[in-house]
Amino acid sequence: MSSSPLSKKRRLSGTETKTGSHCSSSNSVRTDLSHTPANGMAKNGNDAEIDEGLYSRQLYVLGHEAMKRMQNSNVLISGMRGLGVEIAKNVILGGVRSVTVHDQGDAEWRDLSSQFYLREEDLGKNRAEVSQPRLAELNNYVPVTAYTGALTEDYLTKFQVVVLTNSNLDEQKHLGDLCHSKGVKLVVADTRGLFGQLFCDFGEEMIVYDTNGEQPLSAMISMITKDNPGVVTCLDEARHGFESGDYVTFTEIQGMTDLNGCQPVEIKVLGPYTFSICDTTGFSDYVRGGIVSQVKMPKKISFKSLSSSMAEPDFIVTDFAKFDRPGQLHIGFQAIHAFKQKHNRLPTPWSQADGEELLTLAKELNSAQTESAKVEQLDEALIKKMSYLAAGDLSPVNAFIGGVAAQEVMKASTGKFMPVMQWLYFDALECLSEGEEVMLTEEECSPRNCRYDGQIAVFGSKLQKILADQRYFLVGAGAIGCELLKNFAMIGLASEEGEVIVTDMDTIEKSNLNRQFLFRPSDVTKMKSDTAAAAVKQMNPSFKITAHQNRVGPETERVYDDDFFESLNGVSNALDNVDARMYMDRRCVYYRKPLLESGTLGTKGNIQVVIPFVTESYSSSQDPPEKSIPICTLKNFPNAIEHTLQWARDEFEGLFKQAPENAMQYLTDSKFMERTLKLPGAQPVEVLDAVYKSVVTDCPHSWADCVAWARNHWQCQYSNNIRQLLHNFPPDQLTSSGAPFWSGPKRCPHPLDFSTSNVRRMFRISTS
C-alpha cells in the first residue's frame, strides 16, 4: 500500500516547466504560493506549542510544519450517526484547532448499531448534544462544541473544513456550491449497508506541499550528456526510483559544475537508470561523480464543485477487480437519494418491490446523465442489492469510510499527501452469501427495536445470534486493538453466550492517547487491557469481555492451553512485532482456528485473513530479505545514508554489546575458550582480541581513562583509518583500465582533524 490507487481523469493545475528548458535559477520552476484563498489553509500554524509527548507518533508522519497548519483548522462535522462520530473521533485525536458537531435529529435504535457514544438511555435525545461531552474527552487541546441550528452561509464560513454525513443530495449540492464559492474545503461521506461513498472538494487553489510523505530519493550519477535535453544516467547498482514530473537538484558533480546547487528542475524518466533534464549544451563537459536528489515541490490542484463533479465525475479506483463499479455506485447512490426524497424513507431491507423501484429510478437517472457520467449498461443485480442494504448501518464500514474521510480532513488542513480526486466508492458485497437460494427475507431483516437493527437489516437475525455466541481471543489492546474492541462491541460479538478475551502486558503511556481512543489522561500507567475492556463495556453493556495481562509465548501455554484454544471460534492479532505474530500463527495453525492479522505504519496498513484449509497462513509468506551491504563498502566505501546507519549500528553493537558480553563470558564461563576456538576462520582471533582489549589494554580505571579511550577511538575512526585508506588508494589513483579509482560508487573520503572547539566532535567524545 505504498502508493495511491490510480484515478481516472486526474487534473492538476499550476505553473509547470517543460522538460528541455534551460537549467538556471531564472528559468527553474517556481510555484506561486503567495495567494491563499479566503478560509483556505493557513501557511503557518498558530503560536501554540505542539505537545510532542502526546503527538510524537503523528509528528513522525506529518512533521511539525504540517502539524502547525492543522492546528489552525476549525472543522464542522454534520451528522452524528455512526459515520459522523467516527470522523469526529479521528479528527479530534488528530489535533485540529476546534471541532463542531452538528445534528438536528434524535437518537434512534438503529443508531446504536455503530454510534459508539450513544447509549440506550439517550434514545430520543439530540445526537450532537449527547455525543459532544464524550467526544470532548478525547483531546484536551481540541475544543468540541455541539450545534443544532441550520447550516447558513454566515455559519459555514467560520470553518476551514466542513464534513457532511447523513445529508440529502439537494443539501449536499447547495452547501457544496456555497463552500466552493467561499473557499471552504468540503468532504461528503455516506454509507449504506455494505456500500460507502466519499467526495472531496478542496477548492480551485489547493496547495499540496508533499504528495506522498516519503523521504526524498537520491541516486549516484555515472554520466550526463551535453544535449537538449541532457540525459542523466545513474549507477546500475539500484534503480533511481524517480517519476516523470519529479523535480531534482544536483551536488558533487565534477566537470559539469553548472548543475551543482541548481534550482529544482523537472525530469522525464527514460528508463530505470536514466532520465532527461534540461538543455545542457551550454555547460562544461561532465567528468565524473555527482548525486541527484529529489526535491519535494508544492503543487497547486484544482477541484470541481460537487454539482459540477456530479455531472463529470473523477473516480478513485479502490479495487481493480471491480474496475467499472464506481460508475455504477455513482448512479446507485443518486437513486437512493431520489427514493428517499419520494417516499421520505429508505428502501425496506430486502424488499423485492423496493428493489425494482430503485432500479427503475436508477435507469431514469442514468438516461439523464451527461456522457461522462452515464453508465453504458447498469448492473441490475448490483442496484437491487443497494436497495436491499440501503437501510443498513454497519460499524466496520463506518470505521473504514470514517477513517478515510478523517484522513482527507487532515490533508485539507495540512497540505500533506495527495487528496482523493474527487469521488471514492467502496463496497464489501463479498460479505454476503452467494446465490439466489440464500436470499434473505423482509421478515428476517425487519427491525427488532434493538441496538443491532442496523446490522440485522443487512445480514438478518440468524447471523446476529451466531455473532452473539462467538468466543474470540484478541492479542493486544493498542491502537488496532482499541479499534477492534469498539467494532466487536458494536456488532454484538460475544453479547450473549460468547466471550472476548483480550490480553496485553503493557501499561498506558501519554503517547498512546493520540491513537488509542479508549484511554484518557487519567488512565496513564494503568493496564491497557483492563482499561480498554471497561471502556467498551460502556459502549455496549451486553458485551462479554475478560481482560488478561499475559504475554503470549511458550511461558504462558499453561494459561492458553489446549482447552483454551479448542474453545475459541477465532483469534485476532493486534501486535507490534513479527515474532509474536508468528507464534500466534503457529498456534492457530495447530488448533485450526481462523486468524485476523493486521498492522499499520504511518498512513499505510495491511490486513490478512487466515482461514484454515482455505488461505495460506501468516508465516507461509515472508517479506523479501533486505539487501545486505558488503563489509568492504561499510568499512571503506560508504556512499549512502543507509551505509552510515549500518556502520554506526555495527560499531555500537561491537563496542558496547558483543565485546562486553564476550568478556563477561570469558570471566564467568569455564567453557568459553573451548567454544571460541571451535569458531570457523579468523573468528577466534577476532573474539579473543576483543576480549583482551576489554579486560586488559582498554579496561578503564578512571573517568580520565574513559576520555582517553574515546579520544583515541575518534582519532582511529575519523582520521587514521582514512589516512591509511588514502595512502593505499590516493585521490588520483587510476584503475588498470585508466579510469579514476575514486569514481562511481566510491567517494573519496577526507580525514578529520580534532578540535575541542568543535561541538559535534566533543559531543562524540562525551557520549563514547
TrEMBL record:
Gene3D superfamilies: NAD(P)-binding Rossmann-like Domain (3.40.50.720), Ubiquitin-activating enzyme E1, FCCH domain (2.40.30.180), Ubiquitin-activating enzyme E1, inactive adenylation domain, subdomain 1 (3.50.50.80), Ubiquitin-activating enzyme E1, SCCH domain (1.10.10.2660). PROSITE patterns: UBIQUITIN_ACTIVAT_2 (PS00865). Residues 227-296 form the Ubiquitin-activating enzyme E1 FCCH domain. GO terms for cellular component: cytoplasm; nucleus. GO terms for biological process: axonogenesis; DNA damage response; regulation of inflammatory response; ubiquitin-dependent protein catabolic process. It catalyses: ATP + ubiquitin + [E1 ubiquitin-activating enzyme]-L-cysteine = AMP + diphosphate + S-ubiquitinyl-[E1 ubiquitin-activating enzyme]-L-cysteine. SUPFAM superfamilies: Activating enzymes of the ubiquitin-like proteins. Keywords: ATP-binding, Ligase, Nucleotide-binding, Ubl conjugation pathway. GO terms for molecular function: ATP binding; ubiquitin activating enzyme activity. Residues 1-47 are annotated as: Disordered. The active site is at C632 (glycyl thioester intermediate). Pathway: Protein modification; protein ubiquitination. Residues 638-759 form the Ubiquitin-activating enzyme SCCH domain. InterPro entries: E1_4HB, E1_FCCH, E1_FCCH_sf, ThiF/MoeB/HesA, ThiF_NAD_FAD-bd, Ub-E1_IAD_1, UBA_E1_SCCH, Ubi_acti_E1_SCCH. It holds the Pfam family E1_FCCH. Residues 452-637 form the THIF-type NAD/FAD binding fold domain. Its EC number is 6.2.1.45. Residues 297-366 form the Ubiquitin-activating enzyme E1 four-helix bundle domain. Transmembrane segments: none annotated. Residues 14-37 have a biased composition (Polar residues). Belongs to the ubiquitin-activating E1 family. This is E1 ubiquitin-activating enzyme. It comes from Poecilia reticulata (Guppy).
